[in-house]
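Tutorial, part two.
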Amino acid sequence: MSLELEIDFSARIAELQKQLTLKRQEEKEMDEKIAAILRKNADMPRSLNLAVARIKSRLTLTESDSSQLGSSLQLTSVLAENVSGKVRDLDVAKTRVVECLQRVDDLLDLRLCTEGVQAALLNEDYEQAAQHIHRFLALDNAVFQMGEQWEKESKASGHTMKHSYEVLRQAEKDLKTLVEQKFDEAVKDGDVASMERFFKIFPLLNQHEVGLERFGRYLCTKIADFADTNYQSMVAGGGDAKRNNVLYADTLTLLFEGIARIVEIHQPLVELYYGQDKMLILIKHLQGECDVQTEKIVNVFIKNRQYEGKAKLIDTYARQATKYANLEKLDALELDVLLSEVTLMHTRAELYMRFLRRRVAGENAKERDGSAHQAQHHPAAVTAQIADAKADRQKRLDQLLNESKLGRRMQELLGQYIMMEQYFMSESVKKAVAMDVREGNSLTSSMLDDIFFIVRKCVRRSLSSSSIDCVCAMLNNGVAMLETDFFVALNQGIKSGYPATGALAEAYQTAAAAYQVIQHGGKMSAESGPTEKQREEFLTALNNLRAACECIKTLKESLSSDFAKHLTQQNEVQKAKLEHAHGQLDELSVRFESAAKHGVEALVTAAVKTRLRAAVEPFLDVTHTPNESEFADLEANDPFMDGFVAALDKLIASFEHLLVQANYQDLLAVVCSETARQLEKVVGKAVFNRLGGLQLDKELRQLTGYLTSVGGWTVREKCARLTQITSLLNVETVDEAADFYQQSAVTWRLTPSEVRKFLALRVDLAADDIRNLKL
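Running the prediction step on this input gives:
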């Protein structure tokens, strides 16, 4: 079988031919457009050629101008170089002319000085002679190396430069010797005016050190004179019997005031003629004499007041207290006056040193005006220079004072003072504890005020020494004493515990008291036996602990005020040290407050908890699955809550007049928490229906209303769990309890298992629904 295929492409070929025709037509149209564009732009190449020709012509002209400009600049550069060279030559010539004129002026001054100094010495005009010598000493050495022409002209006139130089050198030597002799004669004769006259001449002869040394020796003799007079008066016992307790401090004060007066009087003279930086040299000489006189006074003080002997005795006792327990100790009252005098001595020394620092730093009107005037014209450079000069002077003065005998002896006295002050504080506190008594209706005992008075007195006394280290040391000692001895004394009554209450405990205590009465004879009263004493000691200690917190805060505030008033000059290191020592009082207050809270909890455990447990037991005697009539009777006459609130109020009120306010508020908070816990326990032992839940809600609102009235709104937080339990016991269905638990905005204090536990107390809710409850 043969198969023939017939395929017809005629339609496809016709379509392709049609498209080919269209493309040829488009090609023709495009060729015509291109031809038209070419015909239209036939002149463009000619225009471009003309534009290029014009640009080429202009570039040729620009190149020619640039070459001409380069030639001009080169010529100008050569001319500028020639002119600048001539200007440099002219500047060098000018400089040499100025130097030459200066040399000429110096040579003329040299001749005038030569002639003037001889005339001034003949006329005993030492100031004028010194001025000529000063000018001579200021001349440049190049003056004496001038050319031969000057030398020949000088020889022709009979005066060579060598001759002038030798004359002035001899005059300088003679004038120095003469001024020293005249000054010594003025000192010997006590001629103050002449002394000042020749004192002013020394710096003109470049003898600053010599002048200050001789003047310093003279001032030291003046210091020694008035210091010896004061010393003799001190040895004789002083003139005022009322000031015998501070006799040595007064003598030191007179010494420091005398030296300060000398510095204040002579500082303007020294700074004017010698310069401000030279004042430190004079102070160094004066400080040497100050050290000598201070050493004499302090030695007599130590000997007559038996200062070192008492310090050694205290140190020996402190190191081996057990070994020397039976020996007679120093009476703390004997040290009181002695310690006050030591701090006063250190205060006077510190004030004297501050005075010297202010003087050396240039804290006077003249320097401030001069510094301000200079800084106005050269602010940056002058300010930095003045600051550097001050810092250098202060550093050298601090080194001088720290290495002086005055500084060392004051530090020695202060070191022994800290040890003795600590002993005074410790012994005074022990005496206050031993003499502790509660007066009248006071809730606290006497040692509270006594001990804080002692601590404040000791710290304030150290403050009068003006030593940051001393203040910090005593503040640390005071905090340590409050934290150990004082806290132990207060906590002793708390550790003894509050006598337990309850039927069994009261029966035991009554039997013990009766036995004591029988043993010793007599009658038994309600207040007999150790129970009442133990109760009083516990409450007093508890009140003392809480009141001590307020005393610590008051102490800190008063010390802050004292520090701000007396310790005004502190650097950053000292300030940080003082703040750290001062901050220990806050930590101490927290510790005392924590101990007081634990004491209140112990009080509630011993005196309240047992009675509270007995007071809530009747809750189980009342039905909590009432019918309608029983519920009505319960609403009219609640057999439990009225009596419970009355018993609770009586229990709380019994402590109101026994505790300070803060302890009483803590007691209320703890009692409220304990009440909620005890009620929660008995609620967990009962069973409820819907009406029983309503009755519980009414009782809880009555209880929280009472607790709020006595303890404030904060006590409602203590009843949060009980409130949530009551809400669960008031639901109508288990689903309502689930919705309430999941949708409530409050934070639930009950876990899901506890929710199921308390819902199970409802006898009218299905147990299976409660077990299957999803929370």
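Residues 364-368, 502-528 have pLDDT under 50 and may be disordered. In part three we will examine how such features are distributed along the chain.
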